[in-house]
Amino acid sequence: MGNFEKTENNDNLDKKNKVKKVRIIKSGYGNEELLKNFYDYLQEREIQEVFGVEKADLIISLGGDGTMLVAAKEAITTNIPVLAINMGSLGYLAEVKPQDAVKMLQDYENGNYKLEERAFLEVKYEDNTFYALNELVITKGGHEAHLIQVEVYSNDVFVNKYRADGIIVATPTGSTAYSLSAGGSIVHPGLNALSITPLAPQSLTARPIIVDGSEVLSFKATSRDDSVHLNIDGNQWFQIQPNDLVSARLSKKKIKIVKPTNSDYYSILRQKLKWGDSVL
Q: Which of 65, 225, 226, 277 is an active site residue?
């Protein structure tokens, strides 16, 4: 196994937390019966549900990874951790099962947990700043739209020009989402990096690339029919014009996700995404 010294961050294991108020965010599609014990526990402990995240001690996400994106938008305005309970089908980010929800909350209260930090993508467009946990996508307007041309710069240095259906710029968290399905690489969430993945590029040599997350990426996109869209985390859309400048970098803002002490990134990849499974 080698003689390297193994280092671990156990800072959170001794930190107990008093939870009196929670902000619950749910998708509306999960089976609420699976959470009966959890809701009973909240009632028994007199833990109050609040609707202003700034009043909460903990944010609880009840749903799948899509619900986590909603929770992330609220968590970014505070320093409050998110406990994600998987009520969906995949649950890559939301790995806690409904039957383990009470125990996970108890573990958080007793200091028996760890926090996993995931960085946001900071996107600037038209003097506005947006944050994405997964990715930004610059894409053509529809199925019948022409291919678009996207010029990519890093710290004002020309990187490449893509003629494609679009490009995906993903955080390490987003590297296992849309970017992965488009042929992008898996990027460990501990890395300060961004991945650029072309969508159905015209050139066979246009390959994904991983860049330093500290660099400022900027993009100029054009098309023959002026139909170019900017998509941020799948829930914010803008039609961008040829002279519009979009830029992005990995933000210092991070979401803190409450995880079991035995949570293992590579195990999650194998279990949830079937990474490494035989195709035969």
A: 65
